[in-house]
Amino acid sequence: MAAEAKDTPAKGRLLIRNIGLLLTGDLNQPIMDADCLLIEDGVIAGFSAEAADSEIDAQGCAVMPGLIDSHAHPVFGDWTPRQNQIGWVEMNVNGAVTSFLSAGEVHLPGRPKDAEGVKALAMVAQRCFANFRPVGAKVIAGAPVPELGFERDFYAGLKEAGIHRIGEIGLGTVAKGADAKRVTGWCRELGIETIMHTGGPSIAGSHLVTAEDVLEAQPDVVSHINGGPTSIPHDDVRALCKGATGALEAVHNGNEKSAVLAMQAAADAGRLADFLLGTDAPAGSGVQPNGMLRMITLMASFGDLPAEQAVCCATGNVARKRKLDQGLLEAGRPADIVFADRPEGSTGKTMLEAMAMGNIPGIAAVMIDGKIRTGRSRSTPPSARVPRS
Predict the structure, then answer these.
(1) Entry pTM
(2) CATH for 67-289, among 3.90.850.10, 3.40.50.300, 1.10.10.10, 3.20.20.140?
(3) What is the mean pLDDT of residues 275-294?
(4) Which of 70, 131, 191, 360 could link 276 by a cystine bridge, Cβ 3.0 to 4.6 Å?
């Protein structure tokens, strides 16, 4: 079998013109007054019309950063054993997702739980997805799940091996406040990001994690504050939005009512910039190619959050809280870009109006590192307009 070439950014200068709406992903300026975007060697160079090697006419489409799924559970390749489904990453790219952050490769059959096996699995997952990018997608994998018995030297070994994030505290035997606090303390000293399951058990073998557990441990990310899938009480959701020091993440495979409440509580606490969105897929609920689109639309419709700010919760917020280069449309960032429009048949006159009414956008094209990876989406309703080369 021939070796597959490693994915690389586009070469040359590309001008995108005739942009109808430019969404930056930045809560401080979610909409930019610009109708052009210049890309050089796969990186955003600016927002003025300049000479380029090639052009794309956006035909009035909205342009926004590729969505970042803050909470996914990949295993190997574009296959998930959780649902025995092939092509789930590719279909999510059709749903406007260009990057995925692993919360742990926990669905691997026979997943090891000894220290050497856990470290080895994380290293293999990280290295494999660094070399294999389905349809150009960036799967940031290698998230080992903490177990009781792992001491500080285990986490120091992870850092030496290039592992910078751990999987969900609570999916292994480390789950309750005191144990979790010990792990988050070690990881904070070592510069390793921590995330913590919140809510009822997701599958047999995982654990109930309460608001009290999270507040004692204070992880860097409160994973699925709306439950994965079973939510903690709503008063406890509000308490976490006030008292948890880490980012506040809501997911598609959680309690939707709690997700909206968490967003509103975060906004009331002046913490909307800490609010992130993910899917928690693949999971028992399946694989949802439009899960991220449904989450931003849920916030814009039932949550009454301006749609352009809802997009930030799935792009720039994730980039900044989880230290990623992609997720914002600004000079020097990777050109991970989605062309979108109102879906055909929507009474909303624009994409933002359609989202406020509860209709997900139609995805017209997806670009990663300056390369067009999909045309009109195979998973969303057809966009009213499509870009033209």
Answers:
(1) 0.97
(2) 3.20.20.140
(3) 95
(4) 70
DSSP-derived pairing of the beta strands 165-169 and 193-196: parallel
Backbone φ, ψ for residue 25 (5° rounding):
85, 0
Say what percent of the chain tops pLDDT 90: 95
**pLDDT given at position 1:** 36
Residues 185-243 have pLDDT tens digits of 999 999 999 999 999 998 777 789 999 999 999 999 999 999 989 999 999 999 999 99
Residue 86's identity, in one-letter code, is: I
Residues 6+ apart with CB under 8 A from 199: 208, 209, 224, 226, 227, 228, 229, 230, 231, 232, 254, 255
Q: Which tokens belong to 309?
A: 């700010």
Q: Which two tokens stand for residue 217?
A: 């441990």
Dist. CA 73–CA 86, nearest whole Å: 14
Asked if 324 and 314 count as a contact pair (C-beta separation under 8 A), the reply is no
Q: Rounded mean pLDDT of 251-266?
A: 98
Evaluate if residue 359 carries a pLDDT over 90.
Answer: yes
Assigned CATH for 13-64+328-374 = 2.30.40.10
Q: Give the burial class of 160: count Cβ atoms within 10 A of its Cβ; 0-12 exposed, 13-18 middle, 19 or more buried.
A: exposed
- Rounded Cα distance between 283 and 271, Å, is 28
In whole angstroms, how far apart are CA 175 and each of 102, 157, 190, 369? 18, 21, 20, 38
Give per-residue pLDDT as tens, 202-214.
877 778 999 999 9
Place of tokens 């144990």: 179
Residue type, 40: E
Domain boundaries, the chain: 13-64+328-374, 67-289
Q: What percent of the chain has pLDDT over 70?
A: 99
Beta bridge partners of 210: none
